[in-house]
Design a protein that fits this description.
The strands form 4 sheets. A 6-stranded parallel β-sheet has the order 5-6-4-1-7-8, sandwiched between helices. A 6-stranded parallel β-sheet has the order 11-10-9-15-16-17, with helices on both faces. It has a 3-stranded antiparallel β-sheet with strand order 13-12-14. Helix content is about 35%, strand content about 15%. With about 400 residues, the chain is of the alpha/beta class. The termini are close together. The model has no long low-confidence stretch (mean pLDDT about 95). The chain binds adenosine-5'-diphosphate and magnesium ion.
């Protein structure tokens, strides 16, 4: 069932509803530098509160080591969530302990609470089913129903995503439903031309998706850190750029398959290099097949930005994951800007996936509404597009 359905909402009044949201936002100290995921989580939480549920939100922040760590406290997120909801959010100092129990017991109909970082508990991410299950029992004891709305974590078999759904009546949240709907449109009879743009730094994570998308897309544009494994595979010098040596054969095989299928893999022809990582003063443009050995590539060059934009101009479906360069620094942000600008002009469905890509379009000043869809989940979208099963979705069907 969908948590936004009238039937579900009618049944939640006065009941405790545990909502798994994805509130994993970037922080500098206690300052939230991009609140996109909190804003995306608000509609489901608000709908439940307005229906009279006692809403208990559970989420993670960063990668603490299964024990409390103040650097990863969700306290700043509770404050921001309260501002966005326009109502007080009670914050529990633990996830399932006495503070959580007291906080939940103190909720009136329509109130909202946020539990402390679920990853402060080793059971959350444990590979041991019994340990995870025991923690899920404690989470489930806090509520009468479960709503799965953390799209960024639905590819994880974790207690607050998977096991808890086996222990409570459950529903899919509106955000997860919307994300899955868009992903279906990217995989089932996408409108053509279908162009996929890949970049970012998690190279090996993303190579897998190429495998599946080669059979679906018409063009694949490669930017970001992934470029250098492709350039190296063609025999070019890549200096000290990001490189996955052990993926060179894989990349050559993709190239061969693309040729067979008539899919065009477009690589940048120029690169912005620097003498060391982040050294903006030394930034300069070189040909992609002539990267000086003592430099590293940190963005696609201006000619490549234009070529990528041209390749996107007539697209009817676009999926973009991963910034074209180190967009956090102005000297290496122009490639990402060029691709983002081209996406805003795409006449069909344009989808931006990946936490950093979504943050990049906002940081570069683009209006979110100029894109068809900005996904809140990087890994989850990629695994879906790779054709993998998402445990957090499958469990809701059971
Ligand atoms: P997403 O979160 O959108 O999936 P990733 O996490 O894979 O993207 O990568 C984002 C990061 O990639 C950014 O922090 C950016 O600085 C970095 N990046 C992009 N291009 C390069 C490059 N050529 N070398 C090193 N890092 C890069
Ligand atoms: Mg990222």
């Amino acid at each position: 069932m969908n948590a936004s359905s009238a039937e579900f909402l009618a049944g939640v009044t006065g009941r405790r509803v545990l909502v798994r949201s994805d509130l994993n936002v970037p922080l500098e100290g206690t300052t939230i530098t991009d609140d996109g995921r909190i804003r995306a989580s608000v509609p489901t939480i608000r709908a439940l509160a307005e229906a009279g549920a006692r809403v208990v939100v559970v989420a993670h922040l960063g990668r603490p080591k299964g024990a409390p760590d103040p650097a990863y406290s969700l306290a700043p997120v509770a404050a921001r969530l309260g501002e966005l909801l326009g109502r007080e959010v009670a914050f529990a100092a633990d996830t399932v302990g006495s503070s959580a129990q007291e906080t939940v017991a103190g909720l009136a109909d329509g109130d909202v609470a946020l539990l402390e970082n679920v990853r402060f508990n080793a059971g959350e991410t444990s590979k041991d089913d019994a340990e995870r299950g025991a923690f899920a029992d404690e989470l489930a004891a806090l509520a009468d129903a479960f709503v799965s709305d953390g799209f960024g974590v639905v590819h994880r078999k974790q207690a607050s995503v998977y096991d808890v759904a086996q222990r409570l009546p459950h529903a899919m949240g509106g955000l997860v439903a919307a994300e899955i709907d868009v992903l279906r449109r990217l995989t089932i009879e996408p409108e053509r031309p279908y162009v996929v743009v890949l970049g970012g730094s998690k190279v090996s994570d993303k190579l897998g998706v190429i495998d599946n998308l080669l059979g679906k897309a018409d063009k694949l544009l490669i930017g970001g850190g992934m470029v250098f494994t492709f350039l190296k595979a063609q025999g070019h010098e890549v200096g000290t750029s990001l490189l996955e040596e052990d993926q060179l054969d894989t990349v050559r095989a993709y190239q061969a398959r693309a040729d067979e299928l008539g899919v065009e893999i477009v690589l940048p022809t120029d690169i912005v290099v620097a003498d060391s990582f982040g050294d903006e003063a030394s930034a300069r443009v070189v040909a992609a097949d002539a990267i000086p050995a003592e430099t590293l590539g940190l963005d696609i060059g201006p000619a490549s930005g234009e070529a990528f934009a041209a390749a996107l101009a007539d697209a009817r479906t676009v999926f973009w994951n991963g910034p074209m360069g180190v967009f956090e620094q102005p000297a290496f942000a122009e490639g990402t800007r060029a691709v983002a600008a081209a996406l805003t002009k795409v006449p069909g469905l344009s989808v931006v996936g990946g936490g950093d890509s979504a943050a990049a379009v906002r940081a570069l000043g683009f209006d979110e509404s100029s894109f068809g869809h900005i996904s809140t989940g990087g890994g989850a979208s990629l695994e879906y597009l790779e054709g993998k099963e998402l445990p957090g979705i499958t469990v809701l069907e059971g």
